[in-house]
Specification:
- The complex is a heterodimer of chains A (about 350) and B (about 220).
- With about 350 residues, chain A is mainly alpha-helical.
- Chain A is built from 16 helices and no strands.
- The two termini of chain A are about 40 Å apart.
- Chain A folds into 2 domains: about 160 residues, no CATH class; about 150 residues, no CATH class.
- By secondary structure, chain B is mainly α.
- The termini of chain B are far apart.
- Chain B contains 10 helices and 2 strands.
- Helix content of chain B is about 65%, strand content about 0%.
- The chains are: A mainly alpha (about 350), B mainly alpha (about 220).
- At the A-B interface, helix 6 of A face loops of B.
Chain lengths: ~350, ~220
């Protein structure tokens, strides 16, 4: 008689990959609505383009690797990658730029490393960095946020569509009339030109903390992020780590010399800090796995973001910080291995 | 003898290619292959140094003390590279300016030291020269392939500025597109291209192996 044998895992996970990815997408919805409100319908077009090309890339690679495309496509991970990429892009982005990023993210950063679960690098950030390096001029074209009290010209959905498809604006509209430097750019160039942080703060685009529009998108992202935390899809260590790593040096430098350093609130609410803390750094595949390791990983990302913003040549450093810490994950995991019960700290068995 | 020659050549060009299989000399391979003409120029220079150094090392192999052999190889290679650099400066000044430091850096190309140590120091002159030609050609072919690939995708041209090597008016080469994908000209493009080349070689090898000796379905199942 043969006994029934089963191999690990014995506990069936209560959360499947597809339901987890769907919940991440749901958590992004409020921020997506805010993004469309402040920066126009370009976000939806970017999301569509990214989703189409990410899904196509996923299907292509699954086909080439002799996997069943339905099974891989049903986990929605390509859609999450596409959504995160769309959040990173300016609302006016030509379709070929978005498509390059989405295809690179899924084909090279994910499937060439072995597919979901094996990728070393965060696919969305790898795709973003590639288009940031390959098409630098296209990723600096942020339109002015809708402000209420200040009236800038805004594009209709057809004009946005025209730009997405052709990379050009209608003749009557010049790019200078609708585009604005982002708050991080304004802060960086202002400080480089020997203006004080207090002088820069009063520019209307800087908003209350991190810039009109951006700070509100940040708030909605944080709401989605806390919801994911309550549902235990993400743990507290990485968001807290990113916050600590960024805010501690920001506060120290701000207290030493408030004239030439942006305030910690600005660093927290501007750019992609909150998106990174809750949605990008927490990617379960490319992040560190042990609880202590996750904290170290988060702190590393926060510190690197601060260093790149303060001393680097790019205005925001989230993508680079995440990719750099992705590389450090194997080392972090090996030094923070949790102690096994009955073993000592070095992993030897106790006598 | 003829079979041996073909075997040597096949080793250098494919089976034991210094760039694709041994992964030697990656620094120049990654740094200068932004265009075809750069790859060709550096490939030819490396080929010349490799053949000459193999010949010299092989000719002097009976007198070189084993304890100090590597410094002597470096000395031989360095003098040869100096000659090549002077030739470049005299006859191809434009190419020399484009390749810059990477012409003198041929000294540090470990593919050359590796051939001196592994082959030329224990084989007769004729065989060593043949080995140098085979390995040098293999390396040059890889440089040219990657250079052409990166140039086509990165700039949309092929064989641009060939005048740096063959003289004459500045040439635009074959213009395939008005503008290219900048990333392929930048350093990441070199890594991507090399990775693709290695993957392609492995895929071809595996396909050939499978077509040569098809494993029966049943046997494959049993092996598991």
């Amino acid at each position: 008689m043969e006994f029934q044998r089963r191999e690990a895992p014995f506990l069936i996970p209560s959360v499947s990959v597809s339901s987890m990815m769907l919940q991440v997408l749901a958590a992004l919805v409020p921020a997506a609505i805010a993004h469309v409100w402040f920066f126009g319908p370009g976000f939806i077009l970017n999301l569509l383009v990214a989703a189409i090309f990410a899904t196509a890339g996923e299907a292509l690679m699954l086909g080439l690797r002799n996997r069943r495309p339905e099974a891989g496509l049903a986990d929605y991970s390509a859609l999450v990658t596409a959504a995160l990429l769309a959040f990173a892009l300016p609302s006016l982005t030509p379709w070929w730029v978005t498509a390059t990023g989405a295809l690179f993210a899924v084909v090279v950063a994910k499937h060439l490393y072995g597919g979901l679960g094996f990728n070393i690098f965060n696919p969305a950030m790898a795709g973003y960095v590639v288009i940031l390096v390959a098409f630098p001029m296209h990723l600096n074209l942020w339109v002015a946020p809708r402000m209420g009290d200040l009236d800038y010209q805004h594009l209709t959905i057809l004009q946005t569509l025209q730009f997405t498809l052709t990379g050009g604006l209608p003749d009557a509209i010049s790019f200078d009339a609708i585009s604005r430097a982002t708050p991080l750019d304004v802060m960086k160039s202002g400080l480089n030109n020997a203006r004080t942080a207090a002088e820069i703060r009063v520019i209307p685009i800087m908003g209350d903390f991190g810039g009109r529009g951006w700070e509100w998108i940040g708030n909605f992202l944080a709401i989605g992020g806390f919801w994911l935390m309550i549902r235990k899809l993400i743990r507290w260590q990485i968001p807290v780590g990113v916050g600590l790593g960024l805010l501690v040096p920001a506060t120290v430098f701000y207290m030493i010399d408030p004239g030439s350093h942006a305030s910690p609130g600005f660093h927290l609410f501007s750019g992609a800090t909150i998106l990174c803390a809750f949605f990008i750094a927490t990617d379960p595949v490319s992040a560190a796995t042990s609880p202590r390791g996750r904290l170290i990983y988060g702190i590393g990302i926060g510190l690197l973001i601060y260093c790149i913003r303060r001393w680097g040549s790019y205005a925001d450093g989230v993508a680079f910080a995440v990719l750099l810490m992705n590389m450090a994950v194997p080392a972090i995991d090996s030094v923070t291995r949790p102690r096994i019960i009955g073993h000592n700290d070095r992993g030897d068995k106790r006598d | 003898m003829a079979g041996g020659v073909i075997n040597r050549l096949r080793n250098g060009l494919w089976r034991d290619n210094p760039g694709l299989v041994q992964l030697l000399g990656l620094c120049p391979l990654l740094a200068v292959t932004a265009t075809f003409v750069n790859g060709l120029g550096l490939g030819l220079a490396t080929l010349a140094v490799l053949v000459a150094s193999n010949a010299l090392v092989s000719a002097t192999r009976r007198w070189i003390q084993p304890e100090i052999r590597v410094p002597i190889y470096v000395l031989i290679i360095a003098s040869l590279v100096t000659c090549i650099e002077l030739i470049f400066k005299a006859w191809f000044p434009d190419l020399d300016r484009t390749l810059g430091i990477f012409v003198p850096l041929i000294v540090t190309n470990c593919a050359i030291v590796a051939r001196a140590e592994l082959y030329a120091s224990r084989n007769p002159i004729g065989a060593s020269i043949l080995d140098g030609i085979a390995m040098g050609l293999g390396f040059a072919m890889l440089l040219m392939t990657i250079g052409a690939f990166r140039e086509v995708i990165g700039q949309g041209t092929l064989f641009a500025r060939m005048d740096m090597l063959i003289g004459g008016e500045p040439m635009r080469g074959l213009v395939l597109a008005d503008q290219g994908w900048l990333l392929m000209v930048l350093p990441p493009g070199a890594f991507f291209s090399l990775a693709l080349a290695i993957a392609a070689k492995n895929a071809i090898d595996r396909r050939r192996l499978e077509s040569k000796a098809p494993i029966p379905r049943r046997a494959r199942k049993l092996n598991r």
